[in-house]
Fold DUF2249 domain-containing protein.
Amino acid sequence: MGFQGGFPAPLPIIENASPHAQACASPAPVKKESIVAEHTIPVLSQTAYPFDARGVAKRFRHAAIFGALSALQPGETMRFCNDHDPLPLLQQLQGYFGDDVRIEYISREPGEIVIDFHVVSDSRA
């Protein structure tokens, strides 16, 4: 039920959702550069690959997120959407990826969490 060809049916896009919630509906532009401590840091990727955790069964979420981030190349970004702030996950990601992935909250509203994961390097290679 709800499956097409072995894959879950896509989640419907809610027309009246906030802009942050709609940010997970399609690839979103990423800032070409950001300023940190008065230094310009280029971001090579022009889009953020969406990852809506709300559509992934809870028992598979962490593995799916680790797999998705591991598939990204330096300069690419994944835009993560969830209904709660995933603090334990963020600790796990930081422990595994270290400084290779930069975490940037886009929205931290209750029930509407949007985080960009920027892959800045790959020291595991």
